[in-house]
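Hey, quick one: can you model this chain's 3D structure?
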Amino acid sequence: MSRPSPKPNIRKQQPSQIEVVDPAWLLKAIAFTVLAALFCGYLTICLLFYQGQWQLVLHPVRTAASPQSIAGIPYDLIHFGPDDSATPQLTGWWIPSASGGRYANTTLLFLPSSDGSLADAIPTLANLHNLGINVFAFDYRGYGKSAATHPNQQNMTHDAESALGYLNTSRSIPAQQIVLYGTGVGASLATHLAISHATIPALILDSPHADLLDTALLDHRSRLIPVRLLFHERFPLAEPLSTLRTPKLLLSRTASPDKAFRTAANPKFSVELATPSEALYNQGLTRFLDEYVAPAPIPQLVPSPTPSGTIPR
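Sure thing. Here's the predicted structure for all 313 residues.
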């Protein structure tokens, strides 16, 4: 007797369950992703501003050639400030005083502004030299023929120290015989040097452009980021100048002097040049230098001794 064949085990197919995504959750996820992307983009913009903020306040110009002379005055082209590879990073101009110059024993260290290059200061350098003083001027890194790099406050402060060090060591000029002259942001750097080197006898500040936070705040590119928190290229002037006791000459090229001049500590002497006046400019410089810089001694003509046996008439 044959056995009945087993019946196939047929299971009922259960319909698959489809998970339904809550639309509210999906919208929240999309919103979070968009916000995270915007936040990361905002942080990137802040980082780019932090790294490139120097472009808001510093405007360097590179130059390919050095001038033949400083408005007809001969000078020496100087390379100094070596880095770790012993390669000079800075280029300067040594403009010696004419023989018998009024302040031939004194050297004026010229700290230029943040715009252009040293070539733009040639008329000023020639005028200073004509006072009868030695002049040493240089380009910060990133300017003129100095090393090609992005300038910033830290580098420029170091460059100013290097220039003073060059005069002290390579030319054996003591700080007591060096007068600082700063224009634009160079006024802040000159003030910093005067604070660090108390034996410097005098400081001249011409048309300063410092405390640069206000300048950065006026730029339309910085309206959407926390500039006050991120900005560090400040070049402070008002605060350090308010406590500096080094004698200072403050030159204003407008009828409204810089606010840092109004709060500067004594002794200070102010000259307002609301209209260009070379005579008033030179007069102010000369009176200030006569007050705080010892003029070079005038050579004395010593008469030759009378030969023996000769009776002078």
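One thing worth noting: Residues 23-52 form the longest helix (30 residues).
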